User: Fold this.
Amino acid sequence: MAPLNFTGRDVPTAAGTPAPSGRPPVVILACFGAAALLAGLVVAVALRQHKVEHPSPAPPLVGVDRTLTPAVAPKAPAVGPAAVPPAAPPQAPSRAETPPAKPDPAAAKARMLAALRQVPHGVITLSVEDDAAAEAYARQLADLFRQAGWTVDQASAFGSGPPRRGLAAALGVSPADEAVREAFDAVGFRFARPPADAGVIRTPEIFVGIPYGAPN
Assistant:
């Protein structure tokens, strides 16, 4: 019986001839190759499962996301007759503001005369500034009162201050005073305030100054 061998080497027999181990070298190599191949397959399957369980990030998408609401693209201009925009509906002509009617001197004079003639024999005093333009305007007023049948007392006004401009009036409560008020109200005229000492002697009295717009 051959002795047991734990070293992996052949033990020489009694005759000095090495005894065969009973496992050819080719078979041993084949066993090692099969084991290595099997191990490789196991590793490959494991890696494949790892890749499936943990996929790599998807590449960034390029283009339009179809899940979003598409923006409305501007329409291309039409070609041909359709390119001409429809005519706008005719607009009603805007009413231009009617310019104020020019005052009618004849009508204004008639209204003033009608008011003054309510007192056929009235008396009016005109205090006129020492100025050519004021004196010319005072003559027009005097003519108006005389046409209405009034008596006109005219005097020149002198003072140390600057010359008066426009018209001022000192009016009382007599019928003549009321007639003068109505005559000038009929043409929309308002008198300026008279001097503090006006109307002491008698009323009505009109102070005729330099007309506005006239040269000094």
Remarks:
- Helices lie at 25-53, 105-116, 132-147, 175-185.
- The first strand starts at residue 123 and ends at 129.
- Residues 4-11, 49-72 have pLDDT under 50 and may be disordered.
